[in-house]
Amino acid sequence: MLNVDVVRQIRVTVPDLHERIKKETGKSNKSVQVLATEAGISTAYWYQMMKGERSWISEEVLEGIEKALGVSFGVEFDSSKEGD
Taking the mean position of all CA atoms in its chain, how far away is CA 62? Predict the structure, then answer.
């Protein structure tokens, strides 16, 4: 029997996320290099986020950025699953 993976994707639009990341980065006492490392992304990726050069990011990247900055941007995904 062959197993098949089913992937569920949910898209959430976050207005001005790049500005919010830029603001929180400025308030942080950590360097961009440290923040990016803590978020699990490259420094270049972090700068792209602050400049608004990315049109989408994964949920995992957002969670890493929030954790590194110690903030929540209030993005919530419907995590309910059939059968829960």
Answer: 1
Global pTM reads: 0.81
Backbone angles phi, psi at 5, to 5 degrees: -85, 140
pLDDT at residue 84, as a whole number = 44
Closest to 11 measured CA to CA, from 76, 64, 63: 76
Of the candidates 38, 47, 44, the one whose C-alpha atom is nearest the C-alpha of residue 65 is 38
Q: Looking at this protein, which amino acid is placed at residue 26?
A: G
Question: In whole angstroms, what is the distance from residue 50 CA to residue 46 CA?
Answer: 6
Query: What DSSP designation does 55 have?
Result: S
